[in-house]
């Protein structure tokens, strides 16, 4: 049995529209994958049963997405029968290796209209199940959703996950109900407020920086590097504790100054990714909730001290997040009317290191970070993309278009990030202008002294 289609949620619709013009061969690059280690003695039957329970609990895992004359809709199928679980025989030593193995079953684009937009896999070694892997189209899940699915899957398979056990005691919210709530009278009233925000934003956004050309993110070719720095993580914790500057805002303020130097334009448009998980009942739904939230920052009028600049950035970011859930079709029409072309976004910033200010420094916090060049899984998307991850070495991942930033200069930029965060812990009232000069010198491959 299939439930009659209802409109997509705003998050689902954003994924649908953003990816519409991307080559189908590139879609798998955007898929999310999560893997969990199976406890000893967990047989394949239990793994299949765990995936089945997960599918029953979360409608996203049994939803097809189809286009109609009235726009795209989601159609939820029942959960009868066992799910299809692929098997990959591979000896792996880490969860990351298991995730890569399971992801192989999603190398080809998933047909959202004909299939449920996810893949289940069990990784075996000599026939013994070692890991369970789930891969989803981004329209099904975001980073939070994948974390919830992994926790529940661990508990369902008999593993140790207090978080997963807690989730299993709750009745999860569902995307269909969210979509209907967003289109209710109260939802429409809020949508009117969001459009007023966008009108004000367009009045302030420079036409030469927003929207970026439609094809700016669609040409393949990206480079990537990662800064791993317990020292920077420890410094951010000090800044948060002693000076009241949020780690999210410190790194966003740094990124905005770097973009101003890279683009040789004091007025920069940063794109935040709003999680839109700010309160019940929808904050725990398994679905794609992220949406782009652009914000304008005029670095040419930055206050004298960097701490003051961080606080200005914080105020602007909070407003962007506040209006980060919206009907992308309504916003698209508004931007087209004002600018003559569809919205286009660049200079992304996504902060996920929420553990920075919540734990003690780790070993190595007195040593400079190290920069590693990595191969980006995604070869399309924004020309400049910063993602800050959680963990003891707080990976700062920057993916860039080599036409904007060479590999050597990307290494230099991340080294500058590390040095400036460390300096800020000792000098929160340091000069913003001096910081910009050091950034420019780093990107020119010379000393600022």
From TrEMBL:
Q: Where is the signal peptide?
A: none
Coiled coil (residue ranges): none
Tell me the ranges covered by the Condensation domain, including all copies: 34-339
Offer one Pfam family short name for this entry: Condensation
Per its UniProt record, what InterPro entries does this chain match?
A: CAT-like_dom_sf, Condensation_dom
The superkingdom listed in its UniProt entry is Bacteria
Q: Which PANTHER family match?
A: FATTY ACID SYNTHASE, NONRIBOSOMAL PEPTIDE SYNTHETASE
Q: What is this protein called?
A: Condensation domain-containing protein
Species name = Streptomyces argenteolus
């Amino acid at each position: 049995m299939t439930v009659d289609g209802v409109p997509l949620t705003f998050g689902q619709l954003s994924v649908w529209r953003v990816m519409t013009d991307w080559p189908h061969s590139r879609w798998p690059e955007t898929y999310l994958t999560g893997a969990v280690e199976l406890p000893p003695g967990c047989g394949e039957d239990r793994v299949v049963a765990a995936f089945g329970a997960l599918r029953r609990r979360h409608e996203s895992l049994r939803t097809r997405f189809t286009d109609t004359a009235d726009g795209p809709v989601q159609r939820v199928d029942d959960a009868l029968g066992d799910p299809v679980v692929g098997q990959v025989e591979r000896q792996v030593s880490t969860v990351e290796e298991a995730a890569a193995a399971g992801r192989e079953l999603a190398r080809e684009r998933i047909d959202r209209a004909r299939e449920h937009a996810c893949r289940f896999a069990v990784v075996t070694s000599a026939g013994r199940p070692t890991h369970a892997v789930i891969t989803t189209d981004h329209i099904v899940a975001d980073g939070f959703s994948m974390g919830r699915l992994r926790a529940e899957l661990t508990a369902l398979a008999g593993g140790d996950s207090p978080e997963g056990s807690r989730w299993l005691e709750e009745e999860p919210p569902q995307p269909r109900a969210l979509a209907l709530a967003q289109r209710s009278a109260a939802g429409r009233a809020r949508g009117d407020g969001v459009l007023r925000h966008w009108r004000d934003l367009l009045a302030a956004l420079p036409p030469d920086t927003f929207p970026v050309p439609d094809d700016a993110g669609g040409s393949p070719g990206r480079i990537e590097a990662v800064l791993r720095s317990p020292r920077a993580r420890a410094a951010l914790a000090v800044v948060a504790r002693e000076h009241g500057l949020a780690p999210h805002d410190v790194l966003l303020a740094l990124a905005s100054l770097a973009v101003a130097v890279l683009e040789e334009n004091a007025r920069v448009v940063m794109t935040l990714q709003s999680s839109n998980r700010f309160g019940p009942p929808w904050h725990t739904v398994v679905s794609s909730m992220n949406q782009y939230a652009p914000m304008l920052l005029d670095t040419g009028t930055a206050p004298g001290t960097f701490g003051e600049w961080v606080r200005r950035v914080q105020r602007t970011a909070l407003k962007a997040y506040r209006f980060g859930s919206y009907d992308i079709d309504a916003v698209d029409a508004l931007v087209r009317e004002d600018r003559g072309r569809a919205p286009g976004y660049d200079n992304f910033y996504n902060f996920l290191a929420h553990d920075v200010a919540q734990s003690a420094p780790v070993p190595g916090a007195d040593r400079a970070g190290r920069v590693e060049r990595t191969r980006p899984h995604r070869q399309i998307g924004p020309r400049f993309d910063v993602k800050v991850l959680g963990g003891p070495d707080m990976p700062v991942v920057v993916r860039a278009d080599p036409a904007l930033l060479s590999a050597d200069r990307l290494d230099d930029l991340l080294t500058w990030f590390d040095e400036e965060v460390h300096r800020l812990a000792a000098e929160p009232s340091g000069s913003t202008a001096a910081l910009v000069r050091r950034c420019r010198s780093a990107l020119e491959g010379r000393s600022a002294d």
